[in-house]
Amino acid sequence: MNRSVEDSNRRMLRARDAMDRDYAKPLDIPALARIAFVSPAHFIRAFRTTFGETPHRYLQRRRVERAMALLRETDRSVTDVCFDVGFTSLGTFSRTFHAVVGESPSSYRRRAGPVPVPTCFGMAWLRPSSFGEADRGGLT
To answer: Do 73 and 11 belong together in one domain?
Structure first.
């Protein structure tokens, strides 16, 4: 791997780390592109090349992963979980959750329950795959 690819990967990792850390906050492409020291258009292309999915898809999946944990481990309402993980609309949350997990948040909660295995195994086993929703240039 040449030096420029390593540098690009490092910058994309820095932006992805910011998304992991601040997933519940409003994030947008220009702010993430500034973290990676690239233009917004280049950021979207480079992120997809590096991680195999767009920044929007990654952020949505990250939010759904956290929502899955909250639904399994707490008794907070689905609406509270929706807002806690960074969604601003219950409808968008439910639609995205269903697209990623294959069932509604309420159905998931009834079926899932606490995971009786070490967290690292549970996270690997329960991690949703990327979903087939059309890519978007902006993040919500």
So the answer is: no
pLDDT at 48 over 60: yes
CA 66, 102, 74 angle in degrees (round to 5)? 35
* 22 and 77 co-located in one domain: no
Residues 63 and 92 in one domain: yes
Average pLDDT in the 101-127 region?
Answer: 80
Largest CA distance in the chain: 49
Q: Is residue 138 part of a domain?
A: no
Residue 72 pLDDT greater than 70, yes or no: yes
29 shares its domain with 68: no
Whole-angstrom distance, CA of residue 135 vs CA of residue 117? 34
Q: The pTM is what?
A: 0.77
Expressed as residue numbers, the domain containing 34 is 1-52
- For residue 21, give every residue at least 6 positions away whose Cβ sits within 8 Å of its Cβ, in sequence order, or none: none
